[in-house]
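Write out the bound-state structure for 6-O-phosphono-beta-D-glucopyranose.
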Amino acid sequence: MVSRVIPVDPFDLVIFGATGDLAQRKILPGLFRRHVAGQMPTDARVIGAARSDLSSAEFRAMARETIAAHVDPALQDAALLEDFLSRLDYVALDVQAGTGWEALRSLVRPDVVQAFYFSVAPVLFGDLAEGLQAQGIAGPGARIVVEKPFGRDLASAQALNATLAAHFEESQIYRIDHYLGKETVQNLMAVRFANILFEPLWNAQYIDHVQITVAETVGVGGRGAYYDRSGALRDMVQNHMMQLLCLIAMEPPWHFDPDAVRDEKLKVIRALQPVGRGDIVRGQYLAGGGGPGYLEDAGNPSSDTESYIALRVHVANWRWKGTPFYLRTGKRLRARTSEIAITFKEPPHSIFDDARGWRENVLVIRLQPNEGINLKVMIKEPGPGGMRLVQVPLDMSFATALGAEGADMPDAYERLIMDVIRGNQTLFMRGDEVEAAWAWTDPIIAGWQARGDRPQPYDAGSSGPEDALMLMHRDGRRWREIRE
Ligand code: BG6
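---
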């Protein structure tokens, strides 16, 4: 199976913050991979902009190094690399000092797709948006791309939206949540809306509960200062996990169209019930396994920021009334794994005398690693010993089912950047979605602050704090094991 690569229109992509971590680790290597795939048209150009005083040749040398470090050696064709590097330019630009705009204006072409990637601290978004307009660089069809964190509460997100809206239309603003660019996350929509099999059962009548897990083995060392002002709720739940929940819970959109999809997601967020104090468990990892504890990583011995969170969430609408969604995410856990598990209810009546082997049907969508889908079904245990039931997996690994393509999925950023150039906002968050997500998150954080809530310690390499187990046990349910 060979996927079709449709070249996009000629473009100029300006990366503000081009010497930063995201640009170096994700954006430039991702663009190179798209180039290797044949998706970059011959006159596409990438312009790095940052404060450092570099020449274009120095920027290209930097790109060469980062591509060598972050792209699969099998893709590193020398001729393609030279060709890619020849499309790069660099401008030293200091937004706050107001220098470098003219040089940028001389490079950005008015007659191609213009995309401006704000890979910088959010405090600079306003100045960048204003500068692009005031300097006459951004044409009417220009797009801006902004990264999370998009605000840290409702008020700051509203302020940010207002700042951007003063200079660009909503249809020009691409708010990235890189989870939406992951192939398997998009597959959630394909599985739900391209098969008739699941949709009739996709409601509280047939689904007992949903578990969404994003577990990481890494700690926050290296980005402790940022993380300590954020915590797992702001860093992962308000955005990535909320998006996963939306894709599971939303109604079928009338069409796979940006606003149709985002309208349905917004309805889910608005239907989320406030989360009670007893429905949340927060944790902080302890030192262990050769690594420091959270407090040391964060550089804040009295921090009450959570590196783990588990929540029981209810979507208050006809479809989901009575089906809890359990979400958990954390750092320094026992394995790196992201998955969504949908546990179905018991059949209404068992015709088998010996139902000891009976287990619920579970549909597991593995987002990473080993992307795939696993459906647990009941069958007869083989052999002549009567009718005994046993659960077996119908297991599909995308790597096996789709061959080389399934094994080599494009990185989320590759997909998303190309969507920006194509002008497709389906996989980007709309301003009202982000605000609705903060409106749900804010009271949770306010509750912690009012109570002086402190996270519970948990062992590095464990599955999280004990109380998170209780969150499910008391409902007569269990978390799935965290393992790769
Ligand atoms: C980022 C968070 O948005 O997502 C990080 O800020 C987290 O804390 C990362 O580690 C997880 O992304 P992925 O793609 O590795 O699952």
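---
The first helix runs from residue 21 to 36.
The chain has a mean pLDDT of 94.
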